[in-house]
Design a protein that fits this description.
Strand order of the largest sheet of chain A: 14-22-21-20-19-16-15
Pfam family, one (chain A): Rieske
Helix content of chain B: 25-40%
Helix content of chain A: 10-25%
Number of helices of chain B: 3
Structural class of chain A: alpha+beta
Number of domains of chain A: 2
Distance between the termini of chain A: 19 Å
Keywords (chain A): 2Fe-2S, Dioxygenase, Iron, Iron-sulfur, Metal-binding, NAD, Oxidoreductase
Largest sheet of chain B: 7 strands, mixed
Number of helices of chain A: 11
Structural class of chain B: alpha+beta
Number of strands of chain A: 23
Largest sheet of chain A: 7 strands, antiparallel
Order of helices and strands of chain B: HEHEHEEEEEE
Shape of chain A: globular
Distance between the termini of chain B: 31 Å
Oligomer: heterodimer
CATH class of the largest domain in chain A: Alpha Beta
Strand content of chain A: 25-35%
Strand content of chain B: 35-45%
Cofactor (chain A): Fe cation
Radius of gyration of chain A: 25 Å
Protein name (chain A): Aromatic ring-hydroxylating dioxygenase subunit alpha
Family (chain A): Belongs to the bacterial ring-hydroxylating dioxygenase alpha subunit family.
CATH architecture of the largest domain in chain A: Alpha-Beta Complex
């Protein structure tokens, strides 16, 4: 590319055509980091259950900045809000206030304090600078034999001013979110009343157990992952398992929900029995009429009582989805696919790549059978999964396509029209359009 | 000593045959390296070291393995690639349950995609329980613990 062009070059109206440069422009990506990831948005950093004891920490990421999620002693009152109860979870940036060193190198562990190896600046778990060597200088004797002090920090050096960057932290039903921004609204408002019930359905009042992690590096723009999980069009076409076994396809009872700003979404659906329904399987090459499992324990679905909840949009009735996929802007996907539960964390690495970290979990009151079931169904998901290995692949091929054409190209997201309304079916790309409507506003393009 | 050496050679031969079947894309042969109820697990070192049960792939018995083979040959869409397994000499660790042999071997798998240079794809070790059967050595369990902190986008074929 030559000289940077103006960013205000989104040619069409609306958000149903996304220009390729939204995925390939390096400068635009730098602005995304500032305006989205470091701006007034809440980013997922982890689960409370990952750091159960005081001093437990784990590294995470907000945008490209590495942060430390750590459990501190519970403070009686919070400076920011004297009435609130303190959850004890802190998120601080992994960057020493002295010379900028990314001092914490072990991905997880338990510590009493954080010490930078370079000059041993020491921080409390909440990121406050506790002390540093030779702050008051080194006592010595001068040429005339008088006691003196060599070096030391200036007299007005205030340790309070030189702690780690402390992020604002919000903990919601065991999920930990953080933001660098003082302007971000409270987390529950940020998520909004349309999306919240779907998060509460999975997490509220439950203790989680950690089952483990899978990590993959996908050579595509970070937004493509959000689009993938806001796109109910592809699963019944790309993923044989979904269309053949009725886990997700166009003839199911489904709903597309979004927050008032269109940035977060939930795709909700209820599994049917699969098999042939010509309206959705005819000509679909991924549908395998004769396909049967040699070992059906891979798909040993057992409905759980918590699946059924009062229907948030139809008071007085109940709804029992088998699938809910939440996309929480900018970087979190929460998956309930039958009995498989996970968070998926998008960690951008430049405009053309991101790391995708899957954290699988269950509930503390799961029996052994249910844990085994969740682990078996994990074969469907993740970087090697029967139905999600191919998502990473098509994201890579999308990015390759955008890159080879360059300026002037655009994607087309007009299934179900060009508007950004919620729907009671899945034959639509409305959630992608609504995210880009919000994205355009934030980015000013 | 001779018996021990012979056992090691037999395990090396098992590993060589296993690697060749995968690299030559004879995927239908792959479940046959296991006992009918044999276990195959591909797990990140992070989970293994911390005692977390999640695996990238976890299959119980030849039936599930055949389902995986169907998946990699018929249903999972992915860019084409070749693998090349380089497996180090087996190390016999001792006797396992039911008279089985416990052994491990280091491996490196390289991936080559059309038009691309070869790349280091997955690196780790096999931790095995092996049974001597009339049909030769069979895997009662193969746990592949991989060091690679990131899967390079996707992982389709068994390791």
């Amino acid at each position: 590319m030559n000289a940077p062009e103006s960013l205000s070059r989104w040619a069409g109206a609306g958000s149903s055509r996304v220009p390729f440069w939204a995925y390939t422009d390096t400068q635009l990506y730098q602005q995304e980091l500032q305006k989205i990831f470091y701006g007034p948005h809440w980013s997922y950093v982890g689960l409370e259950v990952e750091i159960p004891k005081v001093g437990d920490y784990r590294l995470s990421q907000v945008g490209e900045r590495q942060v430390i999620m750590v459990r501190d002693r519970v403070a009686r009152k919070l400076e920011s809000d004297p009435n609130s109860a303190d959850h004890g979870i802190r998120v601080v940036e992994n960057r020493c206030a002295h010379r900028g060193v990314r001092f914490c190198q072990q991905p997880h562990g338990n510590v009493r304090s954080f010490v930078c190896p370079y000059h041993q600046w020491t921080y409390k778990l909440d990121g406050t600078l506790a002390g540093l060597p030779f702050k008051d200088g080194v006592p010595a004797t001068d040429a005339e034999g008088h006691a003196c002090v060599h070096g030391g920090m200036p007299a007005d050096f205030d340790t309070k001013q030189h702690g780690l960057t402390k992020l604002r932290v919000a903990v919601l039903h065991g999920l930990v979110f953080a933001t660098f921004s003082a302007e971000a609204e409270p987390l529950e408002e940020y998520l909004g009343p349309a999306v919240l019930p779907w998060l509460e359905r999975i997490f509220a009042g439950r203790k989680l157990t950690l089952l483990g992690y899978n990590r993959q590096r996908i050579p595509g723009n970070w937004k493509l992952m959000m689009e993938n999980i806001k796109d109910p069009y592809h699963p019944g076409l790309l993923h044989t398992w979904f269309v053949t076994f009725g886990l997700w396809r166009a003839d199911q009872k489904s709903r597309m929900v979004m927050d008032a700003q269109g940035r977060h979404a939930v795709m909700i659906s209820r599994r049917n029995d699969g098999g042939e329904n010509k309206a959705v399987t005819q000509g679909v090459t991924s549908f395998k009429a004769g396909m049967a499992l040699n070992d059906d324990r891979l798909l040993d679905v057992v409905p759980e009582p918590w699946w059924k909840v009062p229907d948030p949009s139809n008071p007085g009735t109940e709804i029992m989805p088998s699938v809910t996929m939440l996309t929480l802007f900018p970087s979190l996907i929460i998956q309930q696919q039958v009995n498989s539960l996970s968070t998926r964390h998008i960690q951008p690495r430049g405009e053309g790549s991101f790391d995708f970290v899957w954290t699988h979990f269950g509930f503390a009151d799961d029996g052994e059978e249910m844990t085994r079931r969740r682990l078996r169904q994990a074969n469907l998901f993740g970087p090697a999964g029967f139905v999600s290995a191919d998502d990473g692949e098509v994201i890579q091929f999308s990015q390759d396509g955008f890159r080879q054409w360059g300026e002037g190209g655009e994607t087309l997201c007009e299934l179900g029209g060009t508007d950004t309304q919620g729907t009671e079916h899945m034959v639509t790309e409305t959630l992608i359009r609504s995210m880009y409507a919000y994205w355009r506003k934030v980015m000013g393009v | 000593m001779n018996e021990r050496l012979l056992l090691r050679l037999e395990i090396d031969e098992l590993n060589a045959g296993y690697a060749a079947a995968l690299d030559e894309r004879r995927f239908d042969d792959w479940p046959g390296f296991f006992l009918p109820e044999g276990l195959y697990k591909l797990q990140a070192r992070e989970n293994f070291d911390r005692g977390l049960p999640l695996a990238l792939i976890a299959l119980e018995g030849q039936g599930m393995m055949k389902d995986r083979v169907y998946g990699i040959t018929q249903t999972i869409y992915h860019g084409p690639y070749y693998t090349r397994h380089v497996v180090g000499p087996a190390q016999v660790l001792g006797e396992g349950s039911e008279g089985r042999v416990r052994a491990q071997a280091h491996y490196a798998v390289f991936r080559t995609r059309p038009g691309d240079a070869s790349e280091v794809y997955n690196v780790g070790r096999y931790i095995d329980e092996i049974e001597c059967t009339p049909a030769g050595l069979k895997l009662a369990s193969r746990l592949c613990v991989y060091d690679s902190e990131m899967v390079l986008n996707s992982l389709i074929y068994p390791i």
